[in-house]
C-alpha cells in the first residue's frame, strides 16, 4: 500500500499544523482534545511507518519537472531502523506530554510542534530525492526552535533565547552549506535521485572531494562534530524534555543519515580523501566530550556532552571506510537515539522534581527515593558507558574494530591510533557515568561532602537543617513510567540481540560498498 | 558630416560635471543644478543618437522633449520642497539633512 | 549426539544464571523468600547444566562450538560468528564456577538476612555468574569482551552494595575505573588480534597468528591483552582496587575472588596460550608482572590489619602464581597447570571467604582485634578455616599443595632447561611460597589466639584505621582547589567514638537477631567446598587434566615444605607475646602503616592519573568555553560592525552619496574592464 | 574636420566650460547664471545637430523657466550675495568628488565612444513637420500622459509650498523621530 508512505509523514504534519492553527482560532480547543488529537496522529503515523517498513512500498512520480524533482518515497535498510526509531519516539514524546507539559505556550502549539518535528523527520528518512530530502530536513528546524525558545526552562529566559538563537543559526548555516553541496552534487552528477546517487557517481576525485567537504561541514554541524558542537549543550540544557529527546534522538540522526546518503554513497573517492580528517575530529570529539563530562555540573548538559562523544564513535565508524564501520555507525545511531531518549526522559523528570539539575547539590540516594527512576538512570548510564548487553556497546566496539581495520586506502597506522584513543574515550565514559551514578543514584546525603566548592570552607549545616532534609517526591508512574519502561526495554533488547538491527542494514550497506568497487 | 566622438565626449563631460555638482555641493539648490546638468547630458545623448542614426519615428528628439518636460516638473516640485524645508528648518544644508534636530 | 534438539547445555550454563538476574528483577517485588527461591533454583539448574555438559564432554558428545545469538552481519569480509568453544578445561572451570556461585547464593540468604536490597544482590550475583560463564565458554573475542565488561559492572554493583557508606561508594568507583582503564589496552589487543585474522573467532585467530611473520605485531597485541588481564586480575600496577573491594559484602568478595572476575584473566590467557607461547616479549612482560605481583601481594597480605584484606592480597598473590604458570609454558603445551591451580584456588578461597564472613557476623568485624581468638569462641567454623588456610599455604595433601607444587616443579624443570622466563618465575614462586606460609600461619594464630582480654577497648581505637585511604577521586572531580588545599588525608567526616560504639552495638544486635548459623543448604555447600579443597588435588589424576604428575622432583618438594615449615615457625615465634597473637605486630609501625595503604598505590593512582586527567578535563572545559565565547563574540562583532557601518552611512548624506556613487562607478569600471 | 565639427566644438567647449563654472563657482547666483549659459550653449549644440525644435524647446523651458525658478528659489532661501564657502563640502570630499567625476566622465566616454564608434556620420534630423507628425501621431499617448504628469507636479508643488509652517514642522519632526 503506497498510501502508507504518504500517511506516515503527512498525518503528523497536517495534524501539527491544524493544532497550531487551532490555537489561533477564536475558540481554543481544550487540553484533552488537543492531547487526544496529537496522540491519534502520532499513532497513525507510527502505524503507517511500521507498515511501510514492513512492506517496503515505493512511490516514484514526477513532482517539479522544471528542476528534475521527483516525489520519490521508499524505505530501505538504512532508513528502516531510523524510521522505526523516529515513529516510536514521536509517539512516546506525545505520550510523555501528558505527564510533563511545559508552560510558555498553549498545549496546541506544544503538541503541534512535536508532531511537526516527528513528521518532518519521517519525511526526511522516507525521501529518496536529494531536493525533497533537504526540504523535509528544513521543515524540522523551526518547530524545534519554537520548542526550545518557548517551552524551554522557565527559570532562564535569557539563556533560553540565546540557546534557541544559537541552535537555529548553527543549523541554518549547516543547511546552507548542505544546500550548496546538494546542488553541486545534483548538477555535477545530473540526477537528484538518491537511489541513483547511491550507486556512486563517476566524478573526478577533486570534484568529489570539494563537494564532500562542503556537505560534510554542513552535516557535521547537525551531527554535531567537534568543533562545531557548541550549540548542542546549550540547546539541550534549556530544552523541554520532549524537545531534548527529539533533538538527540531524531535531529542528530538526520545528520549522520545525510552523511551516509549524500556523502558516503555518492562520493566514495571524496570521502576516502577526507576520512582521516573526519576520523580525527571524531576522536577529538570523543575525548573532548568525555573530559568535559568529568567536570560538568549540570546533569542535562552532561548528557548533551556525552552525546557529542557518542556521535564521535558513529563518525569514526563512517570514517573508517569499511562496511563494518558503516554497520557500526548505523547501529550506533539507533543505539544512541534510544539511550539518549531514555536519559533525557529520566533527567528531565528529575530536573522537574528537583527544580534544577546541579550535580553539586547534595541529594538523597535516588535508589531509595525513587527506585524506578533510579533503575532507569542506571540502565541509561550503563548503556552510555558501553556496557555489553545494553544498546551502546555494539556500536562502539564495532566502530573500534572498524577503525583498527580501516580501508586499504586509508593511513592504517593513523587509524589504529584513533582506535586506541577511542578506547581511552570509553574509559572516560565510564568515569563520568559512574560519577553521575555516585552522586545521584547512590546519593551523597549521608555525608555533606559534595557541597558547592564555595561553601566548602563554611561550617557544614546540621543534619536536620532545611538544606539537607529528605525531599520525597513521587516516583515515575503513569505515562512517564510507560515511556521510561519502553525505552529501558528497547535499550536492553537492542543490546542483548543486535542481530536484527544489523541484519536490516546489512544488505543496504553491502550494496553501497558493492557500488564502490574500486 | 560630424564626428560622433564630439557630442559623445560632451555627454560624458556634462554628466561628470553634473555628478560633481551633486556630490560636492551642500546647498540643495546647487545640487539641483547638478541634477539638471546630468539630465541635459541625457538629452544630448538622445538627440545625438536620433539625428546620427536611422530614426524614422524621431524617437531621439521626441524623448528629449519629454525629458525636458519631466525635468521641468521635477524641478518645480523639488524647488517647492526645498523652499518648504527652508521654512521649516532655516537652512537647506544637505550635509545636515537627516540629522536629528 | 545425545543433545536434545537445539538446546545446548553450554547455553543453559550461561542462560540460567542470567535468568536469575532478569527474573529476580522482573518478578520479585518485596518477597525475600521468592528472590531466594529463584536464586537458589537458578544456581542449582546452572550447576546441573554444567554437570550435564561435563558428562557430555567426558563421553565426547558435546558440541564443540555451539552458536549463540547468531553471527553478526558485518556487511563485509569480517566474520563475527559469536560461537562458544567447548573443551575439557573450560567445562571443568564452568562447573567450578557454577558450584561456587550456587554455594554463595545459598550463603547470602543467611548473610544478608536483614538487608532490604537482598533481591538486587541476588540478581547481580546471578548476572555476574552468567558473565563469567560466558567468558569461560566463549570461543569468540567479542563474547569475551561482553562477559568481561559485564563482570566489571556487576563487581561495581556488588562492591557498592552498601552504598550508604562513602567507603563502599569509593571502592566501587575505584574498582570499576581501574579495571576499565586497563580494559582500554585489552580491547585494543583483542581487536588487533581479531582484525589481523579477519575474524573474531578464537580458533581462526590462533590459526592466523600462528603462521610466522608477524612477531612484533603479535607481541604488541599480546602485551595489550596482558595489560587488561593485569587490570581484571589485580596485578601490578593495577593491584590496588582489589583490597578496597573488600568494602562489599563478604559473599560478593568470595564471588569476585574465588571463581569469577579475578580468575577471568587466567581463563582468557589460557584461551590464547598458543599465541603467548610464541611471543617471548609477551612472556617476559607477563612473568615480570606476575612475579612482582605475587611477591608484593604476599608481603602486603602479611602486613594487613584486617583478615578480609589479608585474603584479598593473598588472592592477588595466588592469581600471580596462575599467571606465572601460564608464562613458563613451553611452546605447544596446554595451560592445564594454571587451570588446575585456578580450580583449587576457587574452592579454598571461596571457603575461606565464606568462613571469614560467617565469623565476622559472629564477632562483628574482620579487623585483627575482633577476629583474635574468634575460633576459640565460635569453634563451629574451625574445620573450614583450618582446611582453607592449609590449602592456601599448600600443605600436603590438600588441593593447594598439588596444584602449587606442580607449578614449582614445572618452573624448576624449565629453568634448568635454560628458559630465562622460567628462572625469573621460579625465584618469584619460591619467595611467594614462603610468604604464603607466613601469612597463613599468621592468620591462623590470630584466629586461634588465647588471650582475649583488652580486646574490646583496643577495638574501638583501631576500628576505623584500616580505612581505604580516603582520597575521593570523585571529590577531586568536583572540586579543584579545596582538594589541593586540604591535602589528601584530611577527612572531616571521621566518625566520632560515639558513632563507633553505636555501630558496634548495632552489629551486635544484628548478630543476635540473626540465626547463629547459616541454613542447612548453605552449610551443606560449605561442606562440599571443604571436601573439594581437601581432595581436589586428586583432579591431577583425572584424565581431563593433562599434567605430568608422575615424575615430579621429590627433593624439590621436600625443600619447599621445609622452607614453609621454617617460615611458619618463625611466624609463631614472632607472634609470642603480642596482644592479639599477631606476628605482624613485630614489624616496624611505619612499614605496617604503609602496607595498610598498599604502599601508597592509591595515592599514586590519584596523583599520576586522577589529578592530571582532571586538570586536563578542566582545561578542556575552559577551552571549550573559549570556543563558545568565540562563537558568541562573532555574533556581537558582526552586530557592532553593522552598527558602525550604519553610523558611517547615516552621518552625512553627502558622504553617503559619494560612497554610493563611488561604488557604482567602481562596479561600472569593473564591469567594463572585465567585459 | 567638417564644418559641423568646428561649430560643435565651439558651442560644446562653451557649454562644458560654463557647466563647470556653474558647479564650482563660489557665488550662488553666479551658479544659476552659468547654468543658463551652459543651457544656451547646449541649445546651440542641438542646432548644430539639426534638431531645431528641441533647441527651441530647450531654450524656452530651461532657460526661460527653469533657471528663473532656480533664481527665485535661491532668493527665497536667502542665499548670500557674494563669495561664500558655506555651500561647499569639505576639501577632501571635493577632491574625492573630483576624482569620481573624472572617473565617471572617462568611463562614460570610453563606453560611448568605443560602443558607438568615431565615424563621421551625416546629420539627418529631418524636418520639423515630420517631427510634429510623429509627436502627435505615434507618440501622442505618452505626450498626453506627460501633460497629466505636469499638471500633477504643479498641483503637488503648490500643495507643498502652501503648507503652513507649523504643519511642516510637525511633519518634519514626525518623520524625524
From TrEMBL, chain B:
Subcellular location: Cell membrane; Membrane
Alphabetical list of Gene3D superfamilies matching this protein: 1.10.287.3510
Topology in the lipid bilayer: Multi-pass membrane protein
EC number: 7.1.1.-
Top-tier EC class: translocase
Taxonomy, superkingdom: Bacteria
Stretches that traverse the bilayer: 6-23, 30-50, 62-86
Gene Ontology terms: cellular component: NADH dehydrogenase complex; plasma membrane
Biological processes per GO annotation: ATP synthesis coupled electron transport
Catalytic activity entry: a quinone + NADH + 5 H(+)(in) = a quinol + NAD(+) + 4 H(+)(out)
GO terms assigned for molecular function: NADH dehydrogenase (quinone) (non-electrogenic) activity; quinone binding
Main location: membrane
Keyword Transport: yes
Keyword vocabulary terms for this entry: Cell membrane, Membrane, NAD, Oxidoreductase, Quinone, Translocase, Transmembrane, Transmembrane helix, Transport
NCBIfam families xref list: PRK05715.1-2
PANTHER family reported in the protein's UniProt record: NADH-UBIQUINONE OXIDOREDUCTASE CHAIN 4L, NADH-UBIQUINONE OXIDOREDUCTASE SUBUNIT ND4L
Family, similarity comment: Belongs to the complex I subunit 4L family.
Its job: NDH-1 shuttles electrons from NADH, via FMN and iron-sulfur (Fe-S) centers, to quinones in the respiratory chain. The immediate electron acceptor for the enzyme in this species is believed to be a menaquinone. Couples the redox reaction to proton translocation (for every two electrons transferred, four hydrogen ions are translocated across the cytoplasmic membrane), and thus conserves the redox energy in a proton gradient.
Assembly description: NDH-1 is composed of 14 different subunits. Subunits NuoA, H, J, K, L, M, N constitute the membrane sector of the complex.
Name recorded for this polypeptide: NADH-quinone oxidoreductase subunit K
Organism, scientific name: Leekyejoonella antrihumi
From TrEMBL, chain C:
Protein's membrane topology: Multi-pass membrane protein
Record carries keyword Transferase: no
NADH:quinone oxidoreductase/Mrp antiporter transmembrane domain: residues covered: 138-412
Boundaries of every NADH-Ubiquinone oxidoreductase (complex I) chain 5 N-terminal domain copy: 76-121
GO biological process, one term: ATP synthesis coupled electron transport
InterPro entries: ND/Mrp_TM (IPR001750), NU5C-like (IPR003945), Proton_antipo_N (IPR001516)
Main location: membrane
Record-level GO cellular component terms: endomembrane system; membrane
Compartment annotation: Endomembrane system; Membrane
Domain of life: Bacteria
Molecular function as annotated in GO: NADH dehydrogenase (ubiquinone) activity; NADH dehydrogenase activity
Protein known as: NADH-quinone oxidoreductase subunit L
Keyword hit for Membrane: yes
Keyword terms of this UniProt record: Membrane, Transmembrane, Transmembrane helix
TM regions (residue ranges): 6-28, 35-55, 88-108, 120-136, 142-160, 181-206, 212-231, 252-272, 284-303, 310-330, 350-371, 383-402, 422-447, 524-542, 554-571, 654-674
UniProtKB/TrEMBL annotation, chain D:
Molecular functions per Gene Ontology: NADH dehydrogenase (ubiquinone) activity; quinone binding
Chief place where the protein resides: membrane
Enzyme class, broadest EC rank: translocase
Pfam (any one): Oxidored_q3
Source organism, top-level taxon: Bacteria
Chain ranges passing through the membrane: 6-24, 31-49, 55-74, 95-116, 136-160
Protein's cellular compartments: Cell membrane
EC number(s) on file: 7.1.1.-
Function according to Swiss-Prot or TrEMBL: NDH-1 shuttles electrons from NADH, via FMN and iron-sulfur (Fe-S) centers, to quinones in the respiratory chain. Couples the redox reaction to proton translocation (for every two electrons transferred, four hydrogen ions are translocated across the cytoplasmic membrane), and thus conserves the redox energy in a proton gradient.
Protein name: NADH-quinone oxidoreductase subunit J
Organism field: Leekyejoonella antrihumi
Amino acid at each position: 500500500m503506497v498510501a502508507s508512505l504518504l500517511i506516515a509523514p503527512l498525518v503528523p504534519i497536517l495534524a501539527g499544523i491544524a493544532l497550531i492553527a487551532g490555537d489561533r482560532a477564536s475558540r481554543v480547543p481544550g487540553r484533552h482534545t488537543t492531547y487526544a488529537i496529537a496522540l491519534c496522529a502520532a499513532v497513525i503515523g507510527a502505524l503507517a511507518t511500521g507498515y511501510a517498513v514492513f512492506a517496503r512500498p515505493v512511490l516514484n512520480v514526477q513532482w517539479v519537472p522544471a528542476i528534475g524533482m521527483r516525489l520519490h518515497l521508499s524505505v530501505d535498510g538504512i532508513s528502516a531502523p531510523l524510521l522505526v526509531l523516529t515513529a516510536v519516539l514521536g509517539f512516546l514524546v506525545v505520550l510523555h506530554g501528558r505527564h510533563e507539559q511545559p508552560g510558555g505556550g498553549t498545549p496546541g502549539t506544544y503538541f503541534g510542534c512535536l508532531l511537526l518535528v516527528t513528521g518532518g523527520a519521517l519525511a526526511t528518512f522516507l525521501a529518496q530525492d536529494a531536493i525533497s530530502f533537504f526540504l523535509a530536513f528544513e521543515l524540522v528546524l523551526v518547530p524545534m526552535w519554537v520548542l526550545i525558545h518557548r517551552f524551554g526552562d522557565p527559570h532562564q529566559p535569557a539563556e533560553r533565547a540565546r540557546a534557541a538563537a544559537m541552535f537555529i543559526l548553527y543549523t541554518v548555516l549547516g543547511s546552507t552549506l548542505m544546500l550548496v553541496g546538494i546542488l553541486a552534487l545534483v548538477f555535477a552528477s545530473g540526477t537528484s535521485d538518491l537511489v541513483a546517487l547511491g550507486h556512486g557517481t563517476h566524478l573526478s576525485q577533486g570534484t568529489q572531494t570539494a563537494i564532500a567537504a562542503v556537505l560534510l561541514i554542513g552535516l557535521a554541524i547537525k551531527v554535531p562534530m567537534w568543533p562545531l558542537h557548541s550549540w548542542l549543550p546549550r540547546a539541550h540544557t534549556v530544552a523541554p524534555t520532549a524537545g531534548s529527546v527529539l533533538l538527540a534522538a531524531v535531529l542528530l540522526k538526520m545528520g549522520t543519515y545525510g552523511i551516509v546518503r549524500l556523502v558516503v554513497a555518492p562520493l566514495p573517492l571524496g570521502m576516502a580523501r577526507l576520512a582521516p580528517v573526519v576520523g580525527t575530529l571524531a576522536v577529538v570529539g570523543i575525548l573532548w566530550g568525555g573530559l568535559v563530562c568529568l567536570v560538568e555540573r549540570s546533569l542535562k548538559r552532561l548528557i548533551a556532552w556525552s552525546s557529542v562523544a557518542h556521535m564521535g564513535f558513529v563518525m569514526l565508524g563512517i570514517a573508517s571506510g569499511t562496511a563494518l564501520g558503516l554497520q557500526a555507525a548505523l547501529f550506533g545511531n539507533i543505539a544512541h537515539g534510544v539511550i539518549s531518549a531514555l536519559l533525557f526522559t529520566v533527567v528531565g523528570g528529575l530536573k522537574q522534581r528537583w527544580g534544577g539539575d546541579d550535580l553539586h547539590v547534595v541529594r538523597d540516594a535516588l535508589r531509595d527515593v525513587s527506585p524506578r527512576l533510579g533503575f532507569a538512570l542506571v540502565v541509561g548510564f550503563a548503556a552510555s558507558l558501553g556496557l555489553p548487553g545494553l544498546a551502546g556497546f555494539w556500536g562502539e566496539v564495532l566502530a573500534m574494530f572498524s577503525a583498527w581495520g580501516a580501508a586499504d586506502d586509508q593511513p592504517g597506522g593513523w587509524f589504529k591510533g584513533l582506535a586506541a584513543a577511542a578506547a581511552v574515550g570509553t574509559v572516560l565514559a565510564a568515569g563520568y557515568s559512574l560519577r553521575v551514578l555516585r552522586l545521584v543514584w547512590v546519593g551523597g546525603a549521608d555525608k555533606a561532602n559534595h557541597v558547592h566548592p564555595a561553601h566548602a570552607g563554611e561550617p557544614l549545616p546540621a543534619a536536620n537543617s532545611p538544606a539537607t532534609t529528605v525531599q520525597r517526591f513521587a516516583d515515575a508512574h503513569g505515562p512517564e513510567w510507560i515511556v521510561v519502561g519502553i525505552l529501558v526495554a528497547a535499550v536492553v533488547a537492542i543490546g542483548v540481540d543486535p542481530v536484527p538491527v544489523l541484519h536490516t542494514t546489512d544488505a543496504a550497506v553491502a550494496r553501497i560498498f558493492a557500488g564502490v568497487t574500486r | 558630416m560630424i564626428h560622433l566622438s564630439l557630442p559623445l565626449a560632451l555627454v560624458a563631460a556634462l554628466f561628470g560635471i553634473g555628478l560633481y555638482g551633486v556630490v560636492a555641493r551642500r546647498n540643495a539648490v546647487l545640487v539641483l543644478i547638478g541634477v539638471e546638468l546630468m539630465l541635459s547630458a541625457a538629452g544630448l545623448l538622445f538627440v545625438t543618437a536620433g539625428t546620427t542614426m536611422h530614426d524614422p519615428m524621431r524617437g531621439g528628439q521626441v524623448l528629449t522633449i519629454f525629458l525636458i518636460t519631466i525635468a521641468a516638473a521635477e524641478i518645480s516640485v523639488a524647488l517647492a520642497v526645498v523652499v518648504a524645508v527652508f521654512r521649516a528648518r532655516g537652512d537647506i544644508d544637505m550635509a545636515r539633512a537627516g540629522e536629528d534636530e | 549426539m545425545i543433545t536434545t534438539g537445539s538446546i545446548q547445555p553450554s547455553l543453559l550454563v550461561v542462560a540460567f544464571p542470567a535468568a536469575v538476574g532478569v527474573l529476580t528483577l522482573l518478578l520479585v517485588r518485596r518477597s525475600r523468600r521468592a528472590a531466594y527461591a529463584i536464586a537458589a533454583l537458578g544456581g542449582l539448574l546452572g550447576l546441573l547444566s554444567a554437570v550435564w555438559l561435563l558428562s557430555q564432554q567426558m563421553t565426547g558428545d558435546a558440541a564443540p562450538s555451539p552458536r549463540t545469538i547468531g553471527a553478526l552481519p558485518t556487511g563485509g569480509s569480517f566474520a563475527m560468528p559469536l560461537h562458544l568453544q567447548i573443551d575439557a578445561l573450560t567445562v571443568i572451570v564452568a562447573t567450578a564456577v557454577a558450584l561456587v556461585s550456587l554455594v554463595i547464593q545459598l550463603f547470602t540468604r543467611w548473610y544478608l538476612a536483614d538487608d532490604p536490597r537482598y533481591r538486587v544482590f541476588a540478581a547481580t550475583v546471578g548476572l555476574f555468574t552468567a558473565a563469567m560463564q560466558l567468558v569461560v565458554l566463549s570461543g569468540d573475542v567479542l563474547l569475551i569482551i561482553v562477559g568481561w565488561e559485564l563482570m566489571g559492572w556487576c563487581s561495581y554493583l556488588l562492591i557498592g552494595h552498601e552504598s550508604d557508606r562513602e567507603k563502599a561508594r569509593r571502592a566501587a568507583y575505584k574498582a570499576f575505573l581501574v579495571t576499565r582503564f586497563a580494559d582500554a589496552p585489552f580491547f585494543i589487543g583483542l581487536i588487533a588480534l581479531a582484525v589481523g585474522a579477519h575474524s573474531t573467532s578464537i580458533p581462526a585467530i590462533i590459526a592466523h597468528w600462528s603462521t610466522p611473520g608477524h612477531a612484533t605485531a603479535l607481541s604488541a597485541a599480546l602485551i595489550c591483552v596482558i595489560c587488561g588481564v593485569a587490570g581484571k586480575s589485580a596485578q601490578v600496577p593495577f593491584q590496588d582496587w582489589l583490597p578496597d573491594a573488600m568494602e562489599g559484602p563478604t559473599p560478593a568478595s568470595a564471588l569476585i575472588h574465588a571463581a569469577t572476575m579475578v580468575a577471568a584473566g587466567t581463563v582468557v590467557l589460557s584461551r590464547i596460550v598458543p599465541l603467548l607461547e610464541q611471543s617471548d616479549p609477551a612472556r617476559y612482560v607477563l612473568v615480570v608482572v606476575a612475579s612482582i605481583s605475587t611477591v608484593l601481594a604476599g608481603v602486603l597480605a602479611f602486613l594487613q590489619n584486617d583478615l578480609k584484606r589479608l585474603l584479598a592480597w593473598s588472592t592477588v598473590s595466588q592469581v600471580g602464581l596462575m599467571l606465572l604458570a601460564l608464562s613458563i609454558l613451553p611452546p605447544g603445551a596446554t595451560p592445564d597447570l594454571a587451570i588446575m591451580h585456578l580450580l583449587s584456588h576457587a574452592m579454598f578461597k571461596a571457603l575461606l571467604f565464606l568462613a571469614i564472613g560467617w565469623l565476622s557476623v559472629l564477632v562483628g568485624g574482620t579487623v585483627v582485634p575482633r577476629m583474635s581468638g574468634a575460633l576459640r569462641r565460635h569453634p563451629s567454623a574451625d574445620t573450614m578455616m583450618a582446611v582453607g588456610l592449609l590449602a592456601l599455604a599448600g600443605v600436603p595433601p590438600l588441593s593447594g599443595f598439588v596444584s602449587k607444587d606442580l607449578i614449582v616443579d614445572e618452573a624448576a624443570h624449565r629453568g634448568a632447561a635454560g628458559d630465562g622466563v622460567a628462572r625469573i618465575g621460579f625465584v618469584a614462586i619460591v619467595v611467594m611460597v614462603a610468604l604464603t606460609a607466613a601469612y597463613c600461619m599468621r592468620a591462623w594464630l590470630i584466629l586461634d589466639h588465647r588471650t582475649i582480654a583488652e580486646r574490646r577497648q583496643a577495638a574501638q581505637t583501631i576500628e576505623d584505621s584500616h580505612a581505604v585511604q580516603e582520597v575521593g577521586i570523585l571529590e577531586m572531580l568536583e572540586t579543584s582547589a579545596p582538594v589541593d588545599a586540604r591535602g589528601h588525608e584530611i577527612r572531616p567526616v571521621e566518625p566520632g567514638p560515639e558513632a563507633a560504639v553505636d555501630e558496634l552495638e548495632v552489629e551486635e544486635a544484628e548478630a543476635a537477631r540473626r540465626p547463629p548459623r547459616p541454613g542447612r543448604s548453605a552449610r551443606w555447600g560449605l561442606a562440599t567446598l571443604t571436601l573439594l579443597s581437601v581432595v581436589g588435588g586428586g583432579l591431577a589424576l583425572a584424565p581431563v587434566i593433562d599434567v605430568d604428575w608422575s615424575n615430579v622432583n621429590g627433593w624439590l618438594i621436600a625443600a619447599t615444605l621445609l622452607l614453609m615449615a621454617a617460615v611458619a615457625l618463625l611466624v609463631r615465634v614472632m607472634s609470642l607475646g603480642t596482644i592479639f597473637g599477631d606476628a605482624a605486630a613485630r614489624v616496624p609501625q611505619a612499614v605496617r602503616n604503609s602496607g595498610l595503604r598498599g604502599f601508597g598505590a592509591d595515592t599514586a593512582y590519584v596523583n599520576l592519573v586522577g589529578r592530571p586527567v582532571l586538570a586536563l578535563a578542566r582545561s578542556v572545559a575552559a577551552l571549550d568555553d573559549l570556543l563558545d565565547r568565540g562563537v558568541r563574540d562573532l555574533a556581537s562583532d558582526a552586530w557592532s560592525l553593522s552598527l558602525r557601518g550604519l553610523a558611517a552611512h547615516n552621518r552625512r548624506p553627502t558622504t553617503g552619496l559619494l560612497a554610493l556613487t563611488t561604488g557604482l562607478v567602481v562596479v561600472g569600471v569593473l564591469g567594463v574592464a572585465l567585459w | 574636420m567638417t564644418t559641423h565639427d568646428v561649430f560643435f566644438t565651439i558651442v560644446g567647449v562653451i557649454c562644458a566650460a560654463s557647466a563647470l563654472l556653474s558647479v564650482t563657482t563660489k557665488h550662488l547666483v553666479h551658479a544659476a547664471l552659468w547654468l543658463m549659459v551652459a543651457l544656451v550653449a547646449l541649445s546651440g549644440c542641438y542646432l548644430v545637430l539639426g534638431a531645431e525644435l528641441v533647441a527651441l524647446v530647450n531654450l524656452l523651458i530651461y532657460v526661460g523657466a527653469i533657471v528663473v525658478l532656480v533664481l527665485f528659489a535661491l532668493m527665497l532661501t536667502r542665499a548670500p550675495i557674494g563669495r561664500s564657502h558655506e555651500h561647499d563640502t569639505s576639501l577632501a570630499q571635493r577632491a574625492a568628488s573630483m576624482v569620481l567625476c573624472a572617473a565617471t566622465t572617462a568611463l562614460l566616454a570610453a563606453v560611448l565612444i568605443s560602443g558607438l564608434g568615431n565615424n563621421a556620420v551625416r546629420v539627418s534630423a529631418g524636418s520639423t513637420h515630420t517631427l510634429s507628425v510623429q509627436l502627435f501621431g505615434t507618440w501622442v499617448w505618452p505626450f498626453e500622459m506627460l501633460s497629466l504628469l505636469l499638471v500633477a507636479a504643479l498641483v503637488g508643488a503648490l500643495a507643498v509650498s502652501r503648507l503652513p509652517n507649523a504643519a511642516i514642522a510637525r511633519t518634519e519632526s514626525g518623520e524625524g523621530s
